[in-house]
Design brief:
6-stranded mixed β-sheet, Putative phosphoglycerate mutase, 7 helices, His_Pase_superF_clade-1, His_PPase_superfam, phosphatase activity, PG/BPGM_mutase_AS, Rossmann fold, alpha/beta, globular
Length: 214
């Protein structure tokens, strides 16, 4: 029996930026990588080279794009932008300290900690909206690189709903998966099984990373 044609996705989170270490809600604020983030991006590129990806698709935000460019340089491939991998729009929370949000919006902060899938913030996307547009972006890339391997660089609040959508994880799912800065996970896709998770949150290639639990 012939095995189904498999596509391998190297799903990476961007390297560290100021918003990570200062405890800010990032959203669409365009933070560049900091010094450690640049080092992480280079280490990530080296780690992904043995997989021989054909391309790297990225969120358009600078912290993701710079990470993707480091992967591209290490693997001698092209960078493609897809707004479907852009970070979650967080509306009036963007760029603000989490401590401030917890103080000013205690009920919504509680929802963020317990069930962000149901969170509603003025001007922000819902997790369902993020899931739909990121899955559409992933499907586009899988169709383009069918049977091959590609990398995708995006953000924590995109990877979580994206994985939930790919794997059929019911809500509340957001806090059931974890990924650190400049980590990568491996998904495999074929027409028989759809998406399968091969590996989650690999960080052994990093000399240092930021871990966030809220």
């Amino acid at each position: 029996m012939k095995e189904p044609e498999r596509t391998t996705i190297l799903l990476a989170r961007h390297g560290e930026c100021r918003g990570n270490i200062e405890g800010l809600f990032r959203g669409r604020v365009d933070f560049p990588l900091n010094e450690r983030g640049l080092r992480q991006a280079a280490e990530l590129g080296t780690a992904l080279r043995p997989f021989r990806p054909e391309a790297v698709v990225t969120s358009p935000l600078l912290r993701a794009k710079s990470t993707a460019q480091a992967i591209a340089a290490a693997c001698s491939i092209q960078v493609e932008e897809d707004d479907g991998f852009n970070n979650t729009c967080l509306g009036i929370w963007e760029g603000r300290p989490k401590t401030e949000i917890a103080e000013l919006y205690p009920e919504q902060w509680k929802m963020w900690l317990e069930n962000p899938e149901e969170l509603s913030v003025e001007g922000a996307e819902s997790m369902d909206e993020v899931m739909r547009r990121s899955m559409a972006a992933l499907d586009r890339a899988v169709a383009k690189y069918r049977g091959g391997t590609f990398a995708a660089v995006t953000h924590r609040t995109v990877i979580k709903p994206l994985l939930a959508g790919c794997l059929g994880i019911a809500s509340p799912y957001f806090w059931k998966v974890h990924m650190d800065t400049a980590s990568y996970s491996i998904l495999v896709h074929d027409d028989l099984h759809g998406y399968s998770l091969f590996s989650l949150n690999r960080t052994d290639h990093l000399s240092g990373f930021t871990t966030e639990w809220v």
